[in-house]
Write a structure and sequence with these properties.
Length: 364
C-alpha cells in the first residue's frame, strides 16, 4: 500500500469514526425529542440537558445543539431529495404556522414561519416537507415551488390546496391552479351558528354535512369512483348551496358576520368546488393542517429558534420525522439507520433512504 493511499484510507476511517461518535451522541437527543412529541410534550434541548444531568450524563446544551446542527447538515441532501419528490406530484397541500425566532444581537424574538407542503391523502406517496422562513411573505412559497421558473428549470405548475392567505395568490398568477379549502368556508357558518344561533348558519351547515358525507364514503375509493360519486351526489348539493347563498345575500346587511361568511364562499366558489370535477383533489386542506398540528400544539413548550439557520436545520429533521410517521415507520429506528448509512451511501442513490422507500439495513 502506498503512503498516499494509506493516508487517504486513514483519513476516511477517522472521518467515519468521528461521525459515528456524533451519531451515537445525537441518538440520545433524537430519541428524547421523538418520545416527547409522542407524549404530547416536545422535549427541546434545555429540557434534554436537565434530563441527562439527572441521569448522570453531563452533556452541555451547546454540545447537544452542535450535534443536532451537524446531523441537520448531513440530513439536508435527503430532505432536498424529499422536496424534489414532492414537486413531481401534480397536487400538493400548503400551509404555514408562526414560530418565534431570536433576532440577532437584540435578545428579542420576532415571528417567523414554518411552511408545510405535502402530498394528498389520496396519493400513495406519503411525504411532508417543512420549510423554515423568517417571514410570511409569499416569496417563500414561490421559491419552494420554483416560481416563476426558467427555460432550463421549469416551475411547478400543479394544483395547490391552500387556505385564502394572500401569500399564495401570486402563485395562481404564475400558472399554479388554486384549490380552495371547503373546511374554511364551513367554519365561517359554524361560527355563526355556534356563537349567535344563526338560522342561516344552521341551514348552510346542512349542505356541508351532505358534501362531507360523500367524502367519507368515497375516501377509500379509487379516483374514478370518487369522481363519479362527486359528480352524481356532490354537484347537486354544491349547486343548491350556491343558489341558496345567492338568494340570501341581498337580504343581509353589508359588513355583518353573516354577509362575510357568504361572501367568503361566493368569491372563492370556483376554487372551493374544483374538487367536484377532479377525483384526485381533496375537499379541504385538513390533511396538511393535521401534519402541522403537533408543531402548533407544542408552541407553548417552545422557547424559540435561535437563528434562521437553526430553524432551517430543525425543519429538515422534522420533515423526515413526520414523513416517517405518516408512512407507518418508527421514526427513531428510521433516523438511526439513515444516520449510520449516510456517510458511505452513494449520493446518486439518496432516494433509497426516503421514508416511503426506505428498507431497514437488515432487510437489504
Amino acid at each position: 500500500m502506498s503512503t498516499a493511499a494509506g493516508g487517504r484510507r486513514l483519513r476516511r476511517t477517522d472521518r467515519t469514526q468521528r461521525w459515528a461518535t456524533r451519531v451515537h451522541g445525537v441518538r440520545l437527543s433524537v430519541r428524547a425529542s421523538i418520545d416527547g412529541e409522542e407524549a404530547g410534550r416536545p422535549c427541546h434541548l434545555y429540557r434534554q440537558e436537565a434530563i441527562f444531568q439527572r441521569a448522570g450524563h453531563l452533556i452541555a446544551r451547546s454540545t447537544l445543539a452542535q450535534w443536532v446542527g451537524e446531523c441537520g447538515v448531513q440530513l439536508q441532501p435527503l430532505v432536498d431529495a424529499l422536496a424534489a419528490e414532492l414537486l413531481r406530484h401534480p397536487v400538493l397541500h400548503a400551509d404555514e404556522t408562526p414560530v418565534a425566532m431570536l433576532k440577532p444581537g437584540l435578545g428579542k424574538t420576532h415571528r417567523a414561519y414554518l411552511w408545510s407542503y405535502c402530498t394528498t391523502s389520496f396519493n400513495p406517496i406519503k411525504a411532508v416537507v417543512f420549510d423554515f422562513a423568517d417571514s410570511r411573505g409569499g416569496q417563500h412559497v414561490r421559491d419552494f415551488l420554483g416560481l416563476p421558473g426558467t427555460r432550463d428549470k421549469p416551475a411547478w405548475q400543479g394544483k395547490l390546496v391552500s387556505d385564502d392567505f394572500s401569500g399564495y395568490k401570486a402563485c395562481f398568477e404564475l400558472g399554479v391552479t388554486e384549490v380552495g379549502c371547503m373546511a374554511h368556508a364551513r367554519r365561517k357558518f359554524h361560527e355563526l351558528w355556534a356563537n349567535h344561533g344563526s338560522a342561516i348558519g344552521e341551514q348552510a351547515l346542512k349542505y356541508f354535512v351532505q358534501l362531507y358525507e360523500v367524502e367519507r364514503e368515497a375516501a377509500e375509493a379509487d379516483t374514478d369512483a370518487r369522481l363519479e360519486a362527486r359528480r352524481r351526489r356532490s354537484r347537486p348539493v354544491a349547486d343548491a348551496l350556491h343558489h341558496w347563498m345567492l338568494q340570501q345575500r341581498p337580504k343581509i346587511p353589508d359588513g355583518s358576520a353573516t354577509a362575510k361568511a357568504i361572501d367568503y364562499s361566493l368569491k372563492r366558489w370556483q376554487a372551493l368546488t374544483r374538487f367536484v370535477d377532479d377525483g384526485d383533489l381533496p375537499i379541504d386542506n385538513n390533511w396538511v393542517e393535521n401534519q402541522i398540528r403537533p408543531i402548533a400544539l407544542g408552541r407553548q413548550n417552545w422557547l424559540f429558534a435561535g437563528s434562521l439557520r437553526a430553524g432551517q436545520r430543525a425543519a429538515a429533521v422534522m420533515s423526515l420525522i413526520h414523513s416517517a410517521r405518516i408512512n407507518g415507520l418508527d421514526a427513531y429506528a428510521y433516523l438511526r439507520d439513515v444516520l449510520e448509512r449516510l456517510p458511505l451511501h452513494p449520493a446518486s442513490r439518496i432516494e433509497e433512504l426516503l421514508p416511503h422507500r426506505w428498507r431497514p439495513t437488515a432487510s437489504i
